[in-house]
Fold this sequence. Notes:
This protein has 19 helices and 10 strands.
Amino acid sequence: MPxxxxxxxxxxxxxxxxxxxxxxxxxxQWFGGNTQFLLADDQLVVEVAxxxxxxxxxxxxxxxxxxxxxxxxxxxxxxxxxxxxxxVVVVQPPSDDVTDGEQPAARSVARTTQPATKNSPARTGRLxxxxxFVIGPCNELAIxxxxxxxxxxxxxxxxxxxxxxxxxxxxxxxxxxxxxxxxGNAKCPLLMGAEQFTNYxxxxxxxxxxxxxxxxxxxxxxxxxxDVDFLxxxxxxxxxxxxxxxxxxxxxxxxxxxxxxxxxxxxxxxxELISRFQSGLVCRIESPDEETRRGIVARxxxxxxxxxxxxxxxxxxxxFTRNVRELEGTVNVLATWSRMTGxxxxxxxxxxxxxxxxxxxxxxxxxxxxxRAVCDMFGVTREGLCSDSRKKTVTQPRMLxxxxxxxxxxxxxxxxxxxxxxxxxxxxISAERKIEKELKLGGSLNVGASQWAIEDVxxxxxxxxxxx
Length: 468
């Protein structure tokens, strides 16, 4: 039997020590599967899958890695970190059945945060895990907040996760609950949806069993509430939720909520609730960037046990950009087709199948959608938006509406001007230039009583205008 390779022994020992140092969950999230350790010529190379992971590991874990390398491998060994080549794309094994001009891909599959197994949590019936969450620049702050909550659940009284539908709020809340139960850092964590909370409360009101309803929460020390937007405008339920928040926080507990919009946009919510939402961490989860989209496609393809060509992956990540569910849905379509036909998934079949899906799901933004989004956000009426008023509270929303109408629709300047108060095309051009100038300067404007970066305002308005 040949002697064991000392480099392999050192790397195995280093991995084991690193897992003990940072914990199994963090190790799986940041180092498991995505990362390789290479040792040669007095240098240990940590090879990661993306620039984001490289930046995060350098920032958060380099001192730990240096210490472990020097203690386990040797004081003369230098540590370097780099992005590895070809670790993100899902590729196919070689096949004789090559179509649409594609070359057979290398015999490998993408490494994802956690390999798919029969024990991987399903979307329904089981809680999602944080180790299965694909991490990227779009959700960096949210992941950091989730880790802080798990380690010290009573340190930050309020955490608010904000994102549009399908970008990971529920996944994070379920992952936090699972980790809190596992770690024992919270005695009685509870996760529920705002609609579920409302239904239980209304049943208690109608049956006059409110004391029994409140008793259910007496021992809760960490409350996780999903889809808090559902409470907007429901005054009696809001009052009850506020009462519950006060009770939990008075016991030193924590409240974590997920919502589709920023707390300041919950216009039918009591000021006291909004101020509590904003008193802690407000973490926005962006739509996934290209790097993260590739990771999501790779992970879900592996879970579905479907092989995708490079051209197929490129098509998916370039055309489906809004949210995680959309990406997972495209992989589900391709996996079903592959299982039904017994054929491999290449670029041409991906374009054919998903092109239909893209057309069916396409949301055409109309000027009325832009108008509705602007009026809702700034509290102005259509009549005010189209009036001759020169008040700043009207002129700013009007300029934003014109800018977005030009950006999101194919309507010419003259028709946009006509729609917003029979103005001429030069007025629309002037509004467009002013907004572009403010964007370059990093300008801000008032939304209600708050100051918002104009970039954030436009992003929120666009999301609302595109919402079906």
